[in-house]
Amino acid sequence: MKSKLSIALEKDIPPETLMTLAGDEDQDVRLWVAGHPNTPAETLMTLAGDEDKGVRRSVAANRHTPIETLMTLAGDEDKDVRLWVAEHPNTPAETLMTLAGDEDERVRRSVVYNRYTPNRHTPIETLMTLAGDEDQDVRLWVAGHPNTPAETLMTLAGDEDKGVRRSVVHNRRTPIETLMTLAGDEDERVRCSVAANRHTPAETLMTLAGDEDECVRRLVAANHNTPSETLATLAGDAEIVVRCEVAYNSSTSPETLAVLGDSEYECVRRLVARNVNTLPETHAALANKDSDLNNKLQKSISINSSTSPETLAVLAKNADCMVRRLVAVNLNTPIETLMTLAGDEDECVRRLVAANHNTPSETLATLAGDDDEYVRYWVARNGNTLPETLATLAGDDDKYVRYRVARNVNTPAEAIAVLAIDAEERVRRLILERVERHMFYRMVDTLRVGKEVQLWIENGHDTPPEVLAVLAKNADPMVRRLVAANPNTPIETLMTLAGDEDECVRRLVAANHNTPPETLVTLADDEDK
After folding, report:
1. 3-class DSSP state for residue 93?
2. Do the Cβ atoms of 47 and 22 come closer than 8 Å?
3. Distance in angstroms between the alpha carbons of the first and the last residue of the chain
4. Residue 385 pLDDT > 70, yes or no?
5. Which stretch of DSSP H or E encloses residue 118?
6. Would the CA dihedral through 424, 425, 428, 430 be positive or negative?
7. Are 130 and 100 spatial neighbours (Cβ–Cβ below 8 Å)?
8. Which tens digits make up the pLDDT trace of 295-317?
9. Is a pLDDT exceeding 60 seen at residue 213?
10. Which of 120, 278, 400, 484 has a C-alpha 20 to 30 A away from that of 166?
């Protein structure tokens, strides 16, 4: 027989049972009843007066506890009970205002934040009151609350605690004027927060660019709102980390990037190479600088979407295969360079050329005969691959190559026919699904033999007979109807379909001009008129 505690722990226990268990002498049983989601509101109200504080805490934490009960528990003698009430999502605003004056600082904090999430129900008047709380953590949470009014944030900007002031900087409602004031804060971490804030005005960032603290200047250099003139000044900063941030910032001007391109530090030059604002001539200069040593720099230039075709053509001759790979995948790489890289000794370079959407069809045809199956795979996948090339790859030894041919929209009908009887089930299934979709899209109305069907018959000549023979065995009668109406359907298949259980299939066979006379004689005796 189950114990009472075991019953109280069950998820699907009925409310009537919980009401009975609520009066049990075992406090553990009552505790679990108090926290159970099925416990009726009346029972929770009764348990709110339980002598055991653990039971009352469980009531305060229960998401189904009625508001009236929460208001009662807000005056409980146990501070943990009051804490749970303060964190409860259903606690009314009036109760939160009362708890804002609680003697325990943890309760007051919970009025502002529920487990590190802003309490959206806390009234603005309560936030304004708690902004003057003696506990610095309470003030810190108020400073970060999204509903704290601007006037209160301006007051907290002068708080004696630096954590509170930093929290004011991160608040989205903080006025621009307050950010400008905090830019002169004595604490460098507060100034760092201002420098990193995306709402900080350009004039303030210009001032902070001359800050004595390296971290402040670095964050100004990383801020996208920093004016290009200020970034140009920071490009000459004594600290390399500051110059690196300037080189990485997308707001940095091409002229400043050109200057940084001559830096003695490779990390700076590498970031310049990756910046979208870097000019082709700067890329070219970087590509020729220490070409035997700075392969990382070459890679950064190669992968940049703004690198000029001329620079990529130079990098395509780099000794490092990683650089050539990045050139092969870059959409700015000129066609002549891709044609050259198609004969690269590195198989990964050839694969990436085969995958590049700019690779010409003639080059893809050459790569279709590559010894590496992954090169052929990417040729089969490329949208530029010619139907003739795909027809050749339909007979490839690698099943994954044939699968990609089956998916390519350029694959011709003769290749579809070959793949429909492929040894690999996955390939055959894909072909059948593809042809079925194609046939359904072509068919305007398969339920009637009329003008719509005749129109479809006239346009349905491109489905291979071999594929139609396979589709004639499909379990879906809609597919068999399409086969019966197709002018490419073999005579043997039409003869088989003449005995189909679906009357519409037999009707379409009778309407097909290729149906032999002897089959028509048989259909003349069909019970369907």
Report:
1. helix
2. yes
3. 71
4. yes
5. strand 117-118
6. negative
7. yes
8. 666 666 666 667 778 888 888 88
9. yes
10. 120
Within a 13 Å sphere around the CA of 93, how many CA atoms are in the beta-carbon half?
A: 8
pTM of the model: 0.59
* pLDDT reported for residue 174: 95
Contacts for 380-384 with beta carbons within 8 Å, 24 or more apart? 380/404, 380/405, 380/408, 381/355, 381/407, 381/408, 382/354, 382/355, 382/356, 382/357, 383/357, 383/408, 383/409, 383/410, 384/357, 384/359, 384/360
Q: 71-92, pLDDT tens digit by residue? A: 999 999 999 999 999 999 899 9
3-state secondary structure 360-410: CHHHHHHHCCCCCHHHHHHHHHCCCCCHHHHHHHCCCCCHHHHHHHHHCCC
CA 495 from chain centre, in angstroms, equals 53
Residue 70 has pLDDT above 50, yes or no: yes
DSSP string, 145-203: -TT--HHHHHHHTT-S-HHHHHHHHH-TT--HHHHHHHTT-SSHHHHHHHHH-TTS-HH
Residue 444: pLDDT band with limits 50, 70, 90: very low
DSSP letters for 296-360: HHHHHHHH-TT--HHHHHHHTT-S-HHHHHHHHH-TTS-HHHHHHHTT-SSHHHHHHHHH-TTS-
Query: In this model, does residue 443 exceed pLDDT 50?
Result: no
DSSP 475: S
Query: What is the tally of helices (H) and strands (E) in the chain?
Result: 39, 2
Backbone angles phi, psi at 483, to 5 degrees: -65, -45
Q: 397 pLDDT exceeds 60?
A: yes
In the prediction, which pLDDT does 464 show? 74
Rounded to an integer, what distance in angstroms lies between the CA atom of residue 111 and that of residue 118?
9
Tokens coding 261? 């391109």
Instruction: List Cα–Cα distances, 183 to 4, 178, 417, 513, in angstroms.
Output: 63, 9, 72, 87
User: Are the C-beta atoms of 442 and 457 separated by less than 8 Å?
Assistant: no
Among residues 384, 424, 421, which one has the least CA distance to residue 401? Answer: 424
Residue count (the chain): 529
* Residue 443, SS3 per DSSP: coil
The C-alpha atoms of residue 356 and residue 364 are separated, in whole angstroms, by: 10
Question: Which pLDDT value is given to residue 450?
Answer: 40
What single string gives the DSSP state of each residue in 212-247? S-HHHHHHHHH-TTS-HHHHHHHTT-SSHHHHHHHH
> What is the C-alpha separation between 458 and 355, in angstroms, rounded?
37
Query: Given a cut of 50, is residue 378 above it in pLDDT?
Result: yes
Query: Exposure pattern of 324-339 as b/e (b: 16+ CB <10 Å)?
Result: bbbbbbbebbeeebbe
DSSP state of 137: H
The mean per-residue pLDDT over the stretch 382-400 comes to 94
Q: Tell me the two tokens of residue 83.
A: 């804490």
Q: Is 79 in a helix, a strand, or coil?
A: helix
**Average pLDDT over all residues of the chain:** 87
Identify the pLDDT of residue 199: 93
User: CA 19 to CA 66: how far, in whole Å?
Assistant: 16
Other Cβ atoms less than 10 A from the Cβ of 500: the count is 19
